[in-house]
Design brief:
single chain; alpha/beta; Rossmann fold; five-stranded parallel beta sheet; 40% helix; 12% strand; globular
Length: 215
Amino acid sequence: MSDCLYWLIGRGGSIACNLNWVVTEEIKQLSREEQIIRIKSEVSNEMNASHINVSPYKELLSILSKKTDPDWRHMFITTNWDYLLQREISNLALVEKPRWLSNSHVYHINGTVENLHDNSQRSPFLLESDEPERRVQTTEANEAFDHMSIGQTFVVIGMSFECEMDKFLLASLNRIEDDMPIGSSNWFIINPNTEAMNKTAQSIKNALPRQIYTH
């Protein structure tokens, strides 16, 4: 049985690709549905802007495809609304799933601006201001959580766990830590900002106190 490395990618991943868009105060004044419409439109447009540089994702996928040990696989989970990483995986034009990739689907646990023919299985679109009760059970969200619950090795890129939605994710993992492998998992945190990295590490350690590695 292969081991799996779970990549949790937050806003830092988007920023690395020059997608610096943020929810403005103007948008925050709108109704929830109006906010979602504006966010989907503006993030979709931003993804196709000339300044977007997806080389960090391209390089990551290239390294993983060439350097991954045969006994390991990789899975991607993101809190971002953009689908830059999913687009790059799709651009690989894979005829079949390679050994290094556990799943070619990028799990968007807070929803995505991607508009598919059928979005019924996808996670609901969640705002940072939403209450945790907005996170309903869907096929995508359930699969992502089930995969994480049995995970033992995680890499966190640019995720702070500061908004209520992300805090809820850690709280949910905390509730199962005594019964599932994630309770004794190893976490590697990638963030050039030492203060932000330490805050992320502390948040994870509070939820899963048994073991954590930071870098």
